[in-house]
Design goal:
The complex is a heterodimer of chains A (about 450) and B (about 525). Chain A is an alpha/beta fold and about 450 residues long. Helix content of chain A is about 40%, strand content about 15%. Chain A has 14 helices and 13 strands. In chain A, the strands form three sheets. A seven-stranded mixed sheet of chain A has the order 1-7-6-5-4-2-3, sandwiched between helices. A four-stranded antiparallel sheet of chain A has the order 10-11-13-12. In chain A, strands 8-9 form a two-stranded antiparallel ribbon. In chain A, a hairpin with a 5-residue loop joins strand 8 and strand 9. The longest helix of chain A is centred in the last third of the chain and has 38 residues. The radius of gyration of chain A is 25 Å and the shape is globular. In chain B, helix 5 runs parallel beside helix 10. The two termini of chain B are about 30 Å apart. Classes of the chains: A alpha/beta (about 450), B alpha/beta (about 525).
């Protein structure tokens, strides 16, 4: 077996040193009834070549984004990732390191996480960011739990209608047996100002936080200022959610608009779609809340020779020290995805991020214009970044299936996320990133017109 | 996992390890690397991006105009920056990494290659199911391997890491209890449990009560019997436990727990020791998470991403979270993403369907080993740990007699009156070219050193480690205190001042002249 270095001679010598006759003697504490007597009904070991073939087979049965006009978003976005990003994260010293508990030999991880925290805080327009959480949805749920802690015993959590359906469900799951009481406001694809008005109206004296996504699930951009003001007037926090991190290069930062906690899905920058994971949660907040933050934090310090270095810090918030009193149970987070994010963002730099965001926006504007010209299509989103919602003359799911049959991945039917809401059945959500060409948009518009006319 | 709670960060020693100071501050291959914000600037970029034709924006007055504060680097600068940073890290690729309870085994590169196949990496989680049949088949096959290996009837793939899996398991238990109108409020966990266990239980709204360990390092059955009662929802056990021992009385414990109307949760962090030899389902458990980034070799990546699928007994299966992959009679796959109207499950743990990239790697690992290779994995990992234990037994101090499973535990009695602490000893091991073992965990022994060599070390590598450990133990006994209290001497950094970092947190870079952003 190519991954197991011990030879039979080694094994015999080792058993002899231990002083037992055979390997079974080392498993003698296992109850007799639980010892497997027969091999399990699974295949035997296989060569690298054979395994490689098997996985190419799985891969062949999928329709990958790069080969087709591709317009899916809704929390996961296809962007071009520079080749050097994936090369660098595969350096074994990054890839095969553990959580940096021994800082003297983990300065590489610790320094990139310190840089990552700085980048995330800057993007969000807030003062501090942690070293990542699992993904945007769990980061959102952690923000809700943190808001309940910060507001000391308040229980009500108000979720805007435009919050990604999965994020809302995860927040419900995470608060179900503990801190909060989630209020989900009604979902409407075409009423962004009504959405915010409903959020503001729902804030009361027991409200710990309101959670508003911008751009929201249907692509609408929101000015969070008025919500922040309304929340703060009642002593509640504003949690801002971003599922498309590239938007932060074009749209006012959550912190600038008054958010107290900002969370985002960071996948867009540096990470592939990968069928939904692994992704990375970005989490930023104001300095005064730092001791209530979940997750790891890296801080600057010096070593005993006085040289600058980095360590995990404020660990008394964390499970390995505080156990049941920790701010979160999180241990393993998304270190390597954070590295990919940080390298990609470093390569972009501020100028590159702004150019990338502008190009995304330009493509989405072109998509809107092309779809608005298709008979029977109504564009629902007026103020957006790179994602829009449209209403089709009949259920979107069937049309998307038909277009997939023609090799066009046309977007996400709102019904995929809200199967039981008839009002959303005809709504299709489409994203256009820099990977979408003018020709792709034309192909989509033409095919969509044909399908609608069918 | 590992802890530095009893840490002694600085020693006050000023001497550098070797040689005169250099002009640059670099030391040959060890470069002093500035932060990207100190070398990059806002205008520089390593990505060429086309300029779109002029257009009217649709941002509706929400355009970001203020500077963001990001530095940029060109590609050659960035590649050098990250390459230099990587050289300051110790990974499994660098050397033996015996971090107990973390299973730092070799990460096969085939798995990295396969996870990057465009047909697996470049697919969107919300594509029509008809366009991702291969991905769903892969998830279903992974599920089948996990079910056969654990002997359990159901699995939830979506949890993102071990702690997330624990939470998933406990929430499922709570949902099952509530469905029968049973409002139990207490979770029992041994003192030796991972910190995530009580943290997850608390997040699930449970009060956590600790069960003391017996003199043999295992759960004290009398203490368990006394603690069990109608308010107990679950017992959380790690098996093999964090002392590296198999819980001999698992079957008895399962019986006691079930008789009390509670559920039996097993932390599967240490599944590596028994995979292919023992099925947790035969031990009477109701739920167990499996760290794919431990037993099934997906890379730890400097702290993630991981993946923590949870297997369930029949009693808990109906309450497991969504989504689930379903295979229809015609052989096609679909996802069950939304609860039925009368569903009693816990809902959704995270967006989308789980850590697909980790599923690919873990399944490739399983298929490469096969049932025969996986059994060999367990045997070689247990053999290696017992070999280390036997080879160090007469110089270090083991609190519990063997055989151990895949990790062996020592305490600090052998350092008594030497002036050397467990932390010092670990730091000296860094100078010898090894990653330290887990220290000060589990909490049930004083100055713990938990050593997990894994099955991917050669005998020569184990022998070198053993020789180094013996030499260090001899040096400590011989009074060479400074070799330990000043260590590491040869690492990219000497001991770091953790107290300063915590007292005056600096959590981000700020431009020179600006006030510190952090308090």
């Amino acid at each position: 077996m190519r991954y197991l270095p011990l030879s039979d001679a080694d094994r015999r010598a080792m058993l002899e040193r231990i002083g037992v006759a055979d390997i079974d003697a080392l498993f003698r504490d296992v109850p007799e009834a639980a010892r497997l007597k027969e091999p399990l009904p699974l295949p035997a070991h296989q060569s690298e070549l054979a395994v490689d073939r098997a996985f190419r087979d799985y891969a062949r049965r999928n329709l990958p984004a790069f080969e087709h006009p591709f317009f899916l978003g809704c929390g996961a976005y296809r962007h071009h990732v520079p080749a050097s990003v994936d090369h660098l994260i595969q350096r074994g010293e990054f890839l095969t390191a553990y959580t940096p508990y021994q800082p003297e030999i983990a300065q590489g991880t610790l320094q990139y996480l310190f840089e990552f925290q700085t980048q995330v805080a800057s993007l969000m327009g807030l003062e501090v960011a942690n070293a990542s959480l699992y993904d945007g949805s769990t980061a959102c749920a952690e923000a809700v739990l943190m808001a309940c802690r910060v507001t000391r015993g308040r229980r009500r959590v108000v979720l805007a209608g435009g919050l990604h359906a999965h994020y809302a469900t995860v927040a419900e799951t995470m608060t179900r047996f503990g801190a909060g009481e989630v209020v989900r406001l009604p979902v409407a694809a075409d009423d962004p100002s009504g959405d915010l008005a409903r959020v503001i109206a729902a804030i009361d004296d027991d409200t710990a936080c309101v959670v508003v996504q911008s751009p929201d699930l249907f692509g609408h951009l929101h000015d969070l200022g008025p919500v922040a003001e309304a929340a703060h007037a009642k002593g509640a926090l504003l949690v801002a959610v971003v599922t498309e991190a590239v938007s932060l290069g074009a749209v006012r930062a959550p912190g600038e608009m008054g958010a107290d906690i900002a969370v985002a899905e960071g996948q867009s920058i540096g990470n592939s779609l990968s069928f939904g994971g692994p992704y990375l949660g970005l989490f930023a907040t104001r300095e005064r809340f730092v001791r209530q933050m979940p997750g790891r934090l890296v801080g600057e310090t010096v070593d005993s020779d006085g040289r600058r270095g980095y360590v995990l810090t404020l660990s008394t918030r964390e499970q390995h020290i505080r156990r049941e009193k920790a701010t979160s149970n999180i241990c393993t987070n998304s270190g390597l995805c954070a590295l990919a994010f940080s390298i990609h963002l470093t390569l972009l730099g501020e100028a590159g991020l702004r150019r990338l965001a502008r190009l995304n926006h330009a493509r989405a504007v072109a998509l809107r214009d092309a779809l608005a010209a298709v008979p029977g299509v109504e564009v629902l989103t007026r103020r957006f970044f790179n994602e829009i919602a449209v209403r089709l003359p009949r259920p979107a799911t069937g049309i998307v299936e038909a277009l997939a049959g023609r090799g066009i991945l046309a977007g996400v039917p709102a019904a995929r996320l809200y199967p039981h809401q008839p009002a959303l059945a005809d709504v299709l959500i489409l994203a256009a990133t820099e990977t979408v060409s003018e020709a792709d948009i034309e192909t989509l518009a033409t095919a969509l017109a044909e399908e609608i006319a069918r | 996992m590992s802890m530095n709670r009893q840490g002694r960060p600085t020693t006050g020693r000023e001497t550098r390890a070797a040689g005169p100071a250099t002009f640059t501050g670099h030391r040959a291959l060890d470069h002093e690397e500035p932060l990207i914000f100190e070398t990059g600037d806002a205008a520089r970029s390593g990505v060429d991006i086309e300029d779109p034709a002029p257009f009217d924006d649709a941002l509706g007055g929400l355009a970001r105009t203020a500077p963001i504060g990001l530095g940029g680097l060109t590609e050659p600068e960035a590649v050098r920056h990250y390459t230099r940073l990587s050289r300051k890290n110790f990974g499994i690729d660098s050397g033996l990494f015996p971090l107990g309870s973390c299973t730092m085994k070799h990460n096969p590169r085939l798995n990295e290659k396969l996870a990057r196949l465009p047909g697996l990496a470049d697919i969107h989680p919300l594509q029509p199911e008809s366009t991702v049949q291969g991905a769903l088949a892969l998830m279903d096959d992974l599920a089948r391997w996990l079910l056969v290996l654990t002997g359990m009837p159901a699995v939830a793939l979506s949890p993102k890491a071990g702690a997330h899996g624990e939470l998933c398991g406990l929430m499922t238990i709570r949902a099952a209890l509530e469905a029968r109108g049973d409002a139990r409020r207490v979770v029992l966990a041994p003192e030796s449990a991972h910190g995530t266990n009580p943290a997850s239980a608390a997040l699930c709204g449970y009060e956590v009560r600790a069960i003391p360990a017996g003199a043999d390092g295992r759960v004290d059955l009398a203490a368990l019997a006394a603690a069990l009662g109608p308010e107990v929802a679950a017992l959380m056990i790690t098996n093999p436990n964090t002392c590296g021992l198999f819980e001999r009385d698992m079957l008895k414990m399962a019986e006691m727990v079930h008789a009390a109307g509670a559920f039996f949760y097993c932390d599967g962090a240490n599944f590596n020791a028994i995979v292919g030899r023992v099925r947790p389902g035969d031990l009477g458990i109701d739920a167990m998470h499996i760290n794919l980034h431990k037993t099934f070799s997906t890379p730890h990546g400097g702290g993630g991403p991981g993946a923590g699928p949870v297997v369930f007994s029949e009693a808990l299966a109906p309450f497991a979270p969504l989504p689930q992959v379903v295979r229809d009679e015609d052989g096609s796959y679909r996802l069950r993403e939304h609860p039925d109207p009368d569903a009693r499950g816990v809902g959704r743990m995270a967006a989308f369907h789980g850590q697909m990239g980790m599923f690919v790697r873990a399944l490739a690992y399983m298929m490469s080993h096969g049932q025969d290779g996986l059994r060999q994995v367990a045997e070689d990992s247990v053999l290696a740990a017992n070999y280390v234990m036997a080879s160090l037994g007469n110089v270090l101090s083991a609190p519990f007699p063997g055989p151990c499973m895949h990790e062996c535990l020592f305490d600090d009695r052998f350092l008594k009156d030497s002036g050397v602490s467990t932390l010092d000893f670990a730091k000296a091991l860094i100078d010898e070219g090894f990653h330290p073992m887990t220290v000060y965990f589990p909490l049930v022994v004083h100055g713990a050193m938990l050593i997990e060599p894994t099955e991917t070390e050669s005998k020569a590598s184990l022998d070198e480690f053993i020789a180094a450990m013996r030499a260090l133990a001899a040096a400590a006994r011989a009074g060479e205190v400074e070799r330990f209290t000043g260590a590491p001497y040869h690492a990219p950094r000497r001991r770091l001042d953790e107290t300063r970092a915590a007292r005056h947190p600096v959590l981000r870079w700020t431009p020179p002249g600006a006030c510190d952003a952090a308090e």
